[in-house]
Design brief:
By secondary structure, the chain is an all-alpha fold. The chain has 13 helices and no strands. Helix 5 packs parallel to helix 11. The mean pLDDT is 85.
Length: 297
């Protein structure tokens, strides 16, 4: 095609290209408006309602609602469960991710499926399973009772149920990251004489620290907000086995709206802090991955 022909074709296609760009910009603006409206209606508005209702009676009433004995007991129990369950899930999650990402063995696909199992099983069903195993009429319940060990309707049962529903978060963040960075640095450390533990603490953990922290944040957020499984195994004994979500439900069912929203606002504030930390870790994690990719080129 001659130069004049190409120029003529370019002029003819220019209006079509401009129209496509305008339609693309319009579509982007429409999608953005729908997304913002959805976030405002279903996320921002409920969150604002929680804080508005919690502060409506005044600061003095708010402090009284969150400092009464049952509320303090619920807060202590929630933090205790998270303090026990999250570190245990970190240890188990790191071990599982290491095995899946670094080794090929019979049953590997089954192990990956088991890691994802809590995502597909209702938390209520998980709670019922623990009752079936460790309850007074369960498989191990009579023997545990003889030994004076309480699992169900006590702290151990709440920790077990919380660990079940939060287990995948750490492992699922680490597995793809470990597979992405490969094992070359670890193999080099072993060849240079480093012990397996030294290699793990000085090579593996520094390489995956941001994805590990990201998984810990997600695990902790879910642990503090878990309701279904904990509701089944806790017995909802007020002041003893009620976590913050259960305490909110009890207060709301008793038409104590101000107290319920006050406790809910504490959970919301914890969620916002977790969200801010999650955003910071995502930003730092992205920089770490980019630096690692640049260094491996």
């Amino acid at each position: 095609m001659s130069e004049a022909g190409r120029l003529s074709a370019a002029r003819a296609s220019a209006p079509l290209r401009d129209a496509a760009l305008r339609e693309g910009a319009l579509a982007r603006a429409l999608v953005l408006a729908v997304a913002c409206a959805f976030l405002a209606l279903f996320l921002a508005a409920p969150l604002a309602t929680v804080f508005t209702e919690a502060s409506r009676p005044g600061l003095a009433a708010y402090v009284e609602n969150v400092s009464e004995p049952d509320a303090l007991a619920a807060i202590r129990l929630t933090l205790t469960v998270a303090a026990i369950g999250v570190p245990l899930n970190v240890v188990i999650g790191v071990a599982g991710a290491w095995a899946i990402a670094r080794f090929r063995f019979p049953g590997r696909n089954l192990l990956i499926t088991l890691v994802d199992l809590p995502f597909s099983v209702s938390p209520v069903i998980a709670g019922l399973v623990y009752v079936l195993l460790f309850g007074a009429q369960g498989y191990f319940g009579p023997w545990l009772k003889e030994q004076g060990i309480d699992i169900i309707f006590a702290l151990p049962g709440i920790v077990l149920a919380t660990m079940f529903v939060t287990f995948p978060f750490v492992a699922r963040e680490l597995i793809p990251h470990m597979e992405t960075i490969g094992a070359s640095e670890e193999e080099a450390a072993l060849l240079l004489g480093a012990s397996p533990w030294r290699m793990f603490f000085f090579i593996v953990l520094p390489n995956v620290k941001w994805s590990l922290l990201y998984g810990v944040l997600l695990c902790n957020a879910r642990a503090m907000g878990e309701f279904g499984a904990v509701a089944v195994v806790s017995g909802r004994i007020r002041g003893l086995t009620t976590t913050m979500p259960l305490h909110v439900e009890i207060l709301y069912n008793e038409y104590m709206g101000a107290a319920a929203f006050a406790t809910a606002s504490l959970l919301a504030m914890l969620a916002l802090v977790t969200l801010a930390a999650k955003a910071a870790v995502e930003w730092r994690f992205a920089k770490s991955l980019a630096a690692h990719a640049h260094g491996s080129e």
